[in-house]
Amino acid sequence: MRLLELIPHAWLRWAVLTLLGLAIGQSLVMATRLTVWTQPPLLLLWLLFAWYWRWGAPATSVDHPGVRHSKAIPWALVPLMFWGIFDYLANSFGKVDMGAVFFHLQAGISQHGGTERTVAAVFHTLGTGLVLLAYSWLVRRDGRWHRWDRYLAVLLLACNPMFYSMGQRGAAVVADPGAWLERRYVEPVILEAPRRPPNLLVLYLESLERTYGDTQRFGDAYGDIAALEPRAVVFDNVRQIDNTGWTTAGMIASQCGTPLMPAGLLHDRQFEPLHHVVPGVRCLGDLLNDEGYRLTFMGGASTQFAGKGLFYRDHGFDRALGREELSPRLEDPDYLNSWGLYDDSLYRMVATEVQKLDSKPGPWAMVALNLSAHAPVGYPSQSCLDHFGEYDGVDILYSVRCSAWLTRNLIERLERKGLLENTLVVIASDHLTMRVSEWDALNASERTNTLMMMGNGLTPRRIHRSATTMDTLPTLLEAMGFTIDWHRAGLGVSLLSGEPTLLQRHGMEEVNRYMREETALQERLWQGLAPQIHNDGQPAEPPAVPTAPEQP
Known about the structure:
It is a multi-pass membrane protein. The chain is α/β, with parallel strands linked by helices. The protein has helices spanning about 10-30, 40-55, 75-95, 100-105, 115-140, 145-160, 160-175, 215-220, 225, 245-255, 285-290, 310-315, 325, 345-360, 380-390, 395-415, 440, 470-480, 500-505, 510-515, 520-525; strands spanning about 190, 200-205, 235, 240, 295-300, 320, 365-370, 425-430, 450-455, 460-465, 465-470, 485, 490, 490-495. The protein has two domains: about 1-175, no CATH class; about 200-260 and about 280-515, Alkaline Phosphatase, subunit A. The protein is about 45% helix and about 10% strand. α12 links the parallel β5 and β6 (about 320).
């Protein structure tokens, strides 16, 4: 702080006030749906208040004797640090999901990619440090801010969205541990299999949500996926509920029919890495493994990150192949990005693996996860650069276009080789994208995930029902020709049936509200527990009686 005294007071004062105004504007934009264009007016308004009330001016120190030379540490510094953490998470991921934070800390983040995030974290830490210095200077120079400091600390803690969501769930659990979702959970069961079970190809497109299909806002970025829609059953209203908004959670929601509620404090060794992922529920891999399928997962990133490898190996997959297993197959060992393989390399290997699987008797299933459109800027492959031209390193639409183009090429390549004749092809986004260059445009309307299925005799059509990614599992099973219990699996309902979905019955807000109170389903996920009697003394709710099909 002594070095600051060498700077002329007027310069330092307005530099401090400007920095604090920028921080306030940034936090408001991150915590609300305000756009970045509102930051300059917010800064101007803040500086006008500071000028009018003479914040930080020398004369104000007389309002509180001895403040100018006080060495006391302001109370609000700790809440400001937490706001710095919130701003970083919101700026990086769009929505701050503490469930995702807790899960990744337990499941493992050592093999993450995205060096851009690391660099951003360093600069954000430096910026937060400057804000703390600026606030300390203001409190020590202005008696009014010194008096307000304690109250401001309480206000900053109470208003931080991180603590609001955590406190809301904690209070609900203490008051009345919930079992609303658990009572609606239906154990996934295959009652009858088709005479000739089809093969299955699931292509998860990282962050490539269906919202990009709006050509007025995003041009032809989604065009190659849209070109496949006339041949597919398109589900155009698949929403994203809480605890399904990151890659592992999105895959679990669509393959297990349940949100990924992190283990949290359910285990005595909650601070040790996880050794199993949702061991208490049966998922797509478990069901297909029982039916004699050979199952393979392939992704360009490490399977050690966020428990992906654990999940697939725990749930019936024979192989889970990621960066460590696939990078030795590259012709150019240096053709890698910070996450792992580029998608053109991954898809060539997927095509080779599908050909090997198809050459052997019995049904197979291949699940692949790409990463071209991964936030914040994507990782377009060299083949896309050759085809579309130079990439500016910022525009996510370029990466979206690359992901869509490569995916369409893969499907057409497999079709030409006759490898999809008895195969259901599923194309799905793993979750909605996190903060990218088109963030404000994406949030200008309700956002939906990509989900389409083609092949295996499906009649192309569009299905517009309020659904979530949890409805993917039963829909996929029925599209493959399997008969399942009540058209349901987990919390999902087959969108090919007339059964109303959880979202149709209760709406997004109510489902998310009950999820914040839920503990019984969380215990089932992580301990394999399925209580017969719930905390309210009532037995588990039986499946609803099937209703008549919806009228078009």
